[in-house]
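Journal club side-thread
Mid-discussion, someone asked how the predicted structure for our own chain would compare to the paper's figures. Pasting it here so we can look after the session.
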Amino acid sequence: MSELNRRTFLSAAAGTVATASLAGRASAEGPNDTVRAAVLGVNSRGKAHIEGFTGTKGVKVAVLCDPDQSVLNERLNEFEKKHGYRPDAETDLRKVYDRKDVDVVSVATPNHWHALATIWACQAGKDVYVEKPGSHNIFEGRKMVEAAKKYGRIVQHGVQLRSSEAIQEAVDHLRKGVIGKVYMARGLVYRDRASIGQAKDPDSAPTTLNWDLWQGPAQERAFSKRIVHYNWHWHWNYGNGDVGNQGVHETDMCLWGLGLETLPSSIVAMGGKFLWDDDKETPELLSSSYMFPEQNQMIEFEVRPWATNTEGGAGVGNIFYGSDGYLVVKNYSTYETFLGRTGKEPGPKGKDGDPVGKHFANFIAAVRSRDPKILHGPVETAHISSGLAHLGNIAYRVGRRLNFDPVTEKFIGDSEADALLTRNYRQPYVVPDQV
């Protein structure tokens, strides 16, 4: 974008030129040239993005970006001390998109920025690694898919399970029928989520934080230190609760393991707040079920506010149920199968190291080859796995069973639920119907 205060997206023609230019550069320079990366959002998950890029051969972190100058300075100082040079600094992601010396961006902002940051990057000719969940709502996810296709960009969803060799092996066992006909997947998120308290007095945004920019596409509200910089997860304006936080790793795993590439036709959810009289808006406990009648499969998902008992060894993970046994994905790199009716006959096991670095390496390999087909977490899966979480939240919020058309991505005869498929966007941070 040529001006910081531009209130519209890049034109299709400009995006096409940028795409052709970057693709031509990659082709001309060859696979050994440095890929220059920018990390957007460096307070929490962004630290893992920094390490993911610095640990990948042929990549240089050129820019760090965050709307909070104090957070940005802290991360720059840490980076310089560890890596021996200081990246450029930006507080506004739009300035990053203006730069011709940035090839790829990673989006580690709060959830409500993920889709718009990705779409803007695609229009600016940048490839994208976007943190989970890919979107804040169903509408945004579809627009991300359209933008990546229209502008020919590589978009990787940050679900590193898909780059774990052990979990890839587990999925291969499911495909080969090791536990027989697989009919159901269960996702588990048993995390310790304490009270965030109640705000008694109005807060003032720190002078180092651009609060307007931080809010971006969300509806404007007063600043609260109960929200920034982590507890936004539990507010509908910015986050999606734990099913849309930690849970997207597991919704994605459920879909991947079952071989599903579409959203469900029927959704039911129930839950609430039972423990804390605090400022959280999202439920502490959420149980949701998703039916895929054409495939004769279903998904069950449970969020709990305590790190309680495990199920088959998984507290944050997945269980796949088949006619001849079950398979448990215990974490990002370990699985185990149990065969027979007693569940006492162990099947294949697998374990490997942390797959985060492998996921970034896979992204860069796709960027260099200009081949989205080699991506482990392509944008289409980002839309579907995030969308599953969104549908569960919508069913909880309206308080009834919902029928959904996965082709049109609309509810059947339910305007109240349809209204929650998108949001009212705040100028100039608008996700448009036409990307």
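Post-session note: The mean pLDDT is 92.
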